[in-house]
């Protein structure tokens, strides 16, 4: 079981502290919402949790049933979907998912084709992503993250550009395929994190 621990963690850019003195434990099988106003640093915190940024003070550590996971191997345990992570638009959806699968396997029994069926995009499997609507692109981002066989799922504003049908699909995918994952959602939209059983408000960690 994966546990991610923040120990008195803080992150600053120049002299501005984005968050500080944050101690928290995220455990596999639980779902967490990181909430706060626009521009409050939710995405920065998520990138620290993902190992993409180092904290300016304190520590962020991963362990698997008490055994520490080396920083270089954290990525093997994480799947992430975020607005700032781009798709390879010259590829088709099927090519993109097959390319991703070379680095991280999908959940057992799933292929690029069956994933596209699960998100109702089989009709666009061979169409270049550059010709997709913003909502279709977001579905691909979510599918790539949700169906990857990792214990940790990180979601930053996961329903960006989705309509109500897309919101419903998002909740269905979380419900059907993420039961045993550690899920962390960054958002200030309650519809994106209403299933989460824990909340961390980054505004409480703004002291200098």
What's this, in brief?
The mean pLDDT is 94.
Characterise the protein shown here.
This protein is of the alpha/beta class and 208 residues long. The chain has a single domain, classed as P-loop containing nucleotide triphosphate hydrolases (Rossmann fold), CATH 3.40.50.300. 26% of the residues lie in helices and 27% in strands. It contains 6 helices and 9 strands, in the order E-E-E-H-E-E-E-H-H-H-E-H-E-H-E. A 5-stranded parallel sheet has the order 6-7-8-3-9, sandwiched between helices. A 4-stranded antiparallel sheet has the order 2-1-4-5, with helices on one face. A hairpin with a 2-residue loop joins strand 1 (2-13) and strand 2. Helix 4 packs parallel to helix 5. The mean pLDDT is 94.
CATH class, anyone? Answer: Alpha Beta
- Strand segment tally: 9
* Distance from first to last alpha carbon: 34 Å
Helix content: 25-40%
Supply the CATH architecture.
Answer: 3-Layer(aba) Sandwich
Number of helices: 6
Biggest sheet architecture: 5 strands, parallel
Average pLDDT for all residues: 94
**How much of the residues is beta strand, in percent?**
25-35%
Order of helices and strands: EEEHEEEHHHEHEHE
Name the structural class.
alpha/beta
Low-pLDDT stretches: none
Strand order, main sheet: write it out.
6-7-8-3-9
Instruction: Domain count, please report it.
Output: 1
Q: What gyration radius follows from the Cα positions, in whole Å?
A: 17 Å
Fourth-tier CATH superfamily name: P-loop containing nucleotide triphosphate hydrolases
According to CATH, the fold-level topology is Rossmann fold
């Amino acid at each position: 079981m994966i546990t991610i621990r923040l120990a008195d963690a803080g992150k600053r850019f120049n002299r501005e502290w984005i968050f500080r003195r944050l101690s928290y434990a995220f455990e596999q099988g639980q779902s967490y919402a990181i909430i706060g106003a626009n521009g409050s640093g939710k995405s920065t915190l998520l990138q620290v949790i993902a190992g993409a940024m180092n904290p300016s003070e304190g520590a962020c550590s991963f362990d698997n049933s008490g055994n520490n996971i080396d920083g270089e191997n954290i990525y093997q345990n994480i799947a992430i979907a975020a607005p700032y992570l781009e798709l390879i638009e010259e590829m088709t959806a099927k090519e993109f998912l097959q390319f991703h699968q070379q680095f991280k396997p999908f959940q057992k029994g799933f292929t690029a084709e069956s994933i596209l069926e699960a998100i109702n995009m089989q009709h666009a499997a061979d169409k270049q992503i550059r010709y997709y609507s913003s909502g279709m692109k977001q579905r691909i981002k979510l599918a790539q993250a949700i169906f990857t066989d990792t214990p940790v799922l990180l979601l930053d504003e996961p329903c960006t550009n989705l309509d109500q049908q897309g919101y419903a699909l998002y909740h269905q995918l979380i419900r059907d395929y993420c039961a045993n994952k550690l899920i962390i959602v960054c958002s200030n939209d309650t519809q994106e994190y209403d299933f989460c059983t824990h909340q961390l408000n980054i505004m409480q960690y703004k002291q200098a």
